[in-house]
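Exercise 7. Predict the structure of C2H2-type domain-containing protein from Macrostomum lignano.
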Amino acid sequence: MSARLGNTRASKSAATRQRQAQAVERAFQCNTCQKKFTRKSHLKAHISAVHKKAKPHKCKVCGKRFGFSSDLNTHSRVHTGEKPFECNVCGKRFSESSSLTKHSRLHTGEKPFECNVCSKKFSHAWSLSSHSRLHTGEKPFECNVCGKRFSVSSSLTKHSRLHTGEKPFECKVCGKRFNQACSLSSHSRLHTGEKPFECKVCGKRFHVSSNLTKHSRVHTRKSHRVQGVLQKIQLRQQSEEALQAAHFSTNI
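Solution. The predicted structure, encoded as tokens:
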């Protein structure tokens, strides 16, 4: 009896695998991009959303439309605040699984995107794209006011504030506003007293890196002066030794 039951289960499992294999063989293929699907309904949805650019799925809250129901479901979390994907390390939650995947690389140190030119690795695809433009010289982001071009969109955003006068970063202590986050960070150290930039020569500390750069030139100039003095002393010694040698040879 048990042997017969085992044979029945094995035959069912084999039949299931055979049906799955036949499903792959009978795959529905897109005539435009040759992508294959196991169901005709999936092929129709693909053609409608990708090639015909149809967006039949509408958000009931804001009216935004999507080509796939899965994209609408993801978008809906913007309104509901739902974040079903949780980081196992720090507990931070995300509305999209792709965002969790990207975040996880902060903990694992994984950098799967490698530059074909210099082999530098990155944790995000967009970081690699931005880096690649250093090699190609491509600057696709253009300022509408002055025509200046940039390799990354964030640089264009910062530049645009020179024209608009926008200063979105405000100091919580004194209310002073800045057009760049780094400027606010530097300013904040005036209030906290933090001086993270240390001179390797004398140990003096500064709250902004530019002040350290200026200070370092003091040591550079001193070093040059010392080298100049040492060279003069060396030349004088060499001259005196030469005169002594000449005087010695004359007396002989």
